[in-house]
Amino acid sequence: MEAMGFLFAQIFGAFALVFVSISYFLRDRYKFLLVQICVNFCYSAAFFIAGTYVGAAMMLTASFRCLYLFIFEKKSFKYTNYFLSVFIVIYIVLAIVFWVNWLDIMPLIASILFTVGFAIKNIAIGRPFFIVACLLYVVYDIFAMTYISAASNLLEAIVVFCSIIKLCSNFGKGVQPSQTDEGKLCEYKEKD
After folding, report:
1. Residue 130: which of 50, 77, 186 has the closest Cα?
2. Residue 22 and residue 30: Cα distance in Å, rounded?
3. 189 - beta bridge partners?
4. Which of 94, 140, 141, 186 has its CA 20 to 30 A from that of 74?
5. Pair 128, 164: CB distance under 8 Å
């Protein structure tokens, strides 16, 4: 990767880092999804510039997944196993089309884990999928030389891990995951 490409990949990674940091402080699911569209688009641009096209395709598809969730959840449309399967098939097809080497398995698995994690309503079960996916992206980011994106994914994994700890500490106090804000990943507070 040439110097200018490297610089632009880091810039898009920095934007992703800012957006990811903002997204986890939002309580409104719709705002969260809008910010996640931007996060995934920035990751996609960074991967594209770095020449890692499987990662770029996975992140671009993740942007569409978040857009789909944003549009259809506003209309009370449920995230069914059918749509989960459609996104997984899209990820697999894109990975086959853009496959270069064994590293390309990482964004494929990570994207599937994120998609499954979003589909799981029970946060205690869903969030660990995000941690594994983030860590796979950290490794992929390092090999792709998108170092700020790696930092962003590592930060995201830490935030998700901390939220799981908080969720477990609330659970230990007799509070069920569905009774806490942390337990409502797929049920964020809606606008009044």
Report:
1. 186
2. 13
3. 28
4. 94
5. yes
Query: Could you tell me the two tokens for 118?
Result: 């979003």
Write out the two tokens for 171: 């659970």
- Whether residue 192 is contained in a domain is answered as no
User: What is the SS3 assignment for 78?
Assistant: coil
Q: Report the C-alpha gap between 65 and 77 in whole angstroms.
A: 14
pLDDT in tens, 82-115: 888 999 999 999 999 999 999 999 999 999 999 9
Burial class (CB in 10 A: 0-12, 13-18, 19+), 143: middle
Burial environment of residue 25 by CB neighbours within 10 A (0 to 12, 13 to 18, 19 or more):
exposed
Q: How far apart are CA 90 and CA 46, in angstroms?
A: 21
Structure confidence at residue 186 (pLDDT): 39
Which residues in 149-183 are b (16+ Cβ under 10 Å) and which e? bbbbbbbbbebbeebbeebeebbeeeeebeebebb
- What H or E segment, with its residue span, contains residue 32? helix 29-50
Number of domains into which the chain is organized: 1
Place of tokens 């898009």: 12
**Rounded Cα–Cα distance for residues 35 and 168 (Å):** 26
Backbone angles phi, psi at 144, to 5 degrees: -80, -5
Give domain status of residue 62, yes or no: yes
pLDDT in tens, 116-150: 987 776 767 878 898 999 999 999 999 988 888 89
Give the domain range for residue 121.
3-187
